[in-house]
Specification:
Number of domains: 1
Number of strands: 6
Strand order of the largest sheet: 1-3-2-4-5-6
Strand content: 15-25%
Radius of gyration: 16 Å
Distance between the termini: 36 Å
Largest sheet: 6 strands, mixed
Helix content: 25-40%
Order of helices and strands: EEHEHEHEHHHEH
Structural class: alpha/beta
Length: 210
């Protein structure tokens, strides 16, 4: 898909991670999360409530690199942080290119990468999993087996919220520093969740993701 095809779809949400308490509106930070598909959109935009950090979720049109270029273009004082949630697709060349593009954001664009794909992060909400996947499709099939009602276009944060802390623990065991982003399987989405949790002045002093 060409990165010039359409303007990115924007989903504005005022959200909170509902398993935590959050501060007043004046204390809330603002985050932009750029992702590549409906699964990620459903997960992150599903955190909405009247409390917590303000999160804007954009679905970037085009390929992985186009999404990161878009994230770089959106860096501004409007956001406390910009995150780009992407799949590595088990492709080391692609992953290196994504890191290179993100560096053009002068340290203001953060990558939350999952190997082989974001569905691994969802699997970790329900169970430990450390066996390598042969493809992203294999991870999706595994998630469907664990959670039969799940579909890419019907991903609801409410279906996974009770497992967030467990997912953070499991993801950290797979990649404790969040730097082995091509380890199969692995996901450093826990780092993004830690940032969102830490935004709250009323959060637990030692949340699982932080």
């Amino acid at each position: 898909m060409s990165p010039q095809t359409k303007k990115p779809t924007r989903v504005n949400t005022e959200t909170s991670l509902t398993w935590r308490g959050y501060g007043t509106k004046e204390e809330r930070s603002s985050f932009l999360i750029v992702c590549e598909g409906p699964t990620e959109k459903g997960y992150f935009s599903g955190m909405r409530s009247r409390r917590g950090p303000q999160i804007e979720v954009d679905i970037a049109k085009g390929d992985h690199l186009a999404a990161i270029r878009y994230a770089v273009s959106r860096v501004s004082d409007e956001y406390d942080a910009v995150w780009c949630v992407q799949d590595t697709e088990l492709d080391s060349t692609l992953t290196a290119a994504m890191r290179s593009e993100a560096r053009k954001g002068n340290g203001k664009v953060n990558l939350a990468l999952s190997t082989p794909c974001f569905e691994l992060w969802l699997i970790l909400h329900r169970t430990d999993y450390a066996r390598p996947f042969q493809s992203a499709d294999a991870a999706k099939k595994k998630l469907k087996k664990i959670f039969p009602s799940w579909s890419e276009r019907n991903t609801r944060f409410s279906d996974f919220v009770d497992g967030v802390d467990a997912a953070c623990d499991r993801a950290r065991r797979l990649d404790p520093d969040g730097k082995e982003q091509l380890k199969n399987p692995s996901s450093n989405v826990w780092q993004l969740m830690a940032v969102l949790q830490a935004d709250s002045k009323q959060a637990d002093p030692d949340p699982s993701c932080a």
